[in-house]
């Protein structure tokens, strides 16, 4: 579904692309069931089902942010094997209760590609606004 609010557009689109996420050379997630989020002024973001993320490598934090187009995001820190010196704070986020027009991302996790290597194979579904 696509929604425009004051010229801003956001759309969540299910995909069958192969998405593999690595942090510090370790695979932390892999899926063929991502949900792509197209949003005005942003590059496409990949949201992965929690079942396809190794959540044993992450700890929830107290961090939260609010997006008027998606809702309130919760964050996790990558702790790997527990070495605090290698931790990456708030590297992954999810919307546990997103606003209705992007309900497909509920509970799905997305990674900051400044820390995580997000490799994508396959044809992306079309941006519904194009």
Automatic annotation (TrEMBL):
<dbReference type="InterPro" id="IPR007361">
    <property type="entry name" value="DUF427"/>
</dbReference>
<dbReference type="Pfam" id="PF04248">
    <property type="entry name" value="NTP_transf_9"/>
</dbReference>
<dbReference type="InterPro" id="IPR038694">
    <property type="entry name" value="DUF427_sf"/>
</dbReference>
<protein>
    <submittedName>
        <fullName>DUF427 domain-containing protein</fullName>
    </submittedName>
</protein>
<feature type="domain" description="DUF427">
    <location>
        <begin position="19"/>
        <end position="113"/>
    </location>
</feature>
């Amino acid at each position: 579904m696509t929604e425009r609010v004051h010229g801003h557009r956001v759309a969540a689109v299910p995909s069958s692309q192969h998405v593999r996420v690595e942090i510090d050379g370790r695979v932390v997630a892999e899926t063929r069931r991502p949900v792509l989020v197209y949003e005005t002024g942003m590059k496409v973001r990949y949201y992965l089902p929690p079942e396809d993320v190794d959540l044993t490598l992450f700890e929830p934090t107290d961090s939260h942010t609010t997006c008027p187009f998606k809702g309130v995001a919760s964050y996790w820190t990558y702790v790997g094997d527990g070495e605090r010196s290698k931790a990456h704070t708030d590297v992954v986020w999810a919307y546990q209760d997103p606003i209705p027009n992007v309900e497909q991302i509920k509970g799905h996790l997305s990674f900051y590609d400044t820390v995580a290597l997000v490799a994508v194979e396959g044809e992306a579904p079309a941006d519904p606004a194009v």
